[in-house]
Design brief:
Length: 143
């Protein structure tokens, strides 16, 4: 008798192809059932409540923003912060001031400060945020 022309590998490949076709057909049917076509524009909205949760219904209470809500605390331009020079490089003529309250460091150099500072000197300063980080905009020696 002759050997069958259909080998085991051929049978497995045809089974895999049929299985892929079946899965593709199932995915197509699922997406047809669950699509958003035909919905009105308002039905597609999602609302966020005051706790950050999504919901389908619009919130009842509308929040009015006040100007003081938009200003971060600590951004007072007229307030001097108190600190101490924690590091100073005499060659490069730059250093860092450590804030007394937040313990964060702020960069300075002699050109920005306008005066020469030394390590452990107590100062009052104003800082600005730059793309390199916090640096001083104004500095005074404490009495």
């Amino acid at each position: 008798m002759g050997k069958s022309q259909i080998t085991f590998n051929k049978k497995e490949r045809t089974k895999k192809k049929q299985l892929k076709k079946k899965e593709k057909l199932e995915r197509r049917e699922f997406s047809k059932e669950n699509n958003d076509k035909g919905k009105s524009f308002e039905e597609m909205f999602a609302y966020v409540d005051e706790h950050g949760n999504l919901s389908d219904t619009p919130p009842e209470k509308k929040y009015e923003f006040k100007e003081e809500d938009l200003v971060r605390p600590g951004d007072g331009e007229d307030e001097f912060m108190h600190g101490k020079v924690s590091y100073y490089n005499e060659e490069g003529r730059y250093g860092f001031i450590r804030d007394n309250v937040t313990r964060q460091t702020v960069y300075f150099n002699d050109r920005l400060a306008g005066i020469s500072l030394k390590v452990e000197q107590r100062v009052q300063y104003k800082s600005v945020r730059t793309k390199q980080g916090e640096q001083i905009s104004e500095v005074k020696l404490e009495a």
